[in-house]
Amino acid sequence: MLFGRRKTAGTIFDQHYKSMLNITKSTAIAQNPKFELLPAMFIIVDYAAASCGKDRREIASAIMAEINSIDKNLDKTVFDRRCALYGEIIRGRDLRCEWFMGDHAAFNDNAISKCTALLGDILYNPDCADNYDNAPVMLYGIIDAMSFTETVMKPLLRESVELFKDIYNL
Fold it and tell me: Domain-by-domain residue ranges, the chain?
């Protein structure tokens, strides 16, 4: 049970959204997290539903209702473009990971880490959301980049995995 309510895809989504939004508030680097979390989380939920054989349409419908309650002015065209980018990343498009100052090949292990890495790319450098391959590189100081990785990206990855597991086990 979640705060006395029965666990549903919508309540799980809402719980993780609030947690992830709080994580992103720990840095001024994260740009537009209120919106950018939504498509990333939608794709993770859809992937979880597909992985466990649940009715993806039913879960997607519940999640879209939750997303529309979170962002009443949701630009569906931008949302759909973002979801398509996440799909391309899952299918093997190269990640940028300019926020990660190391070998980012580890993020290619699974769809959840790929989605989270892409979310980090967009939060760190909003220009890559619409021009992923050719956006100029965003430069922050080394301490800021390290802090972003430690205080934002690591907790977001943990939360993304928990979101996947919660939907999978629903």
Answer: 9-168
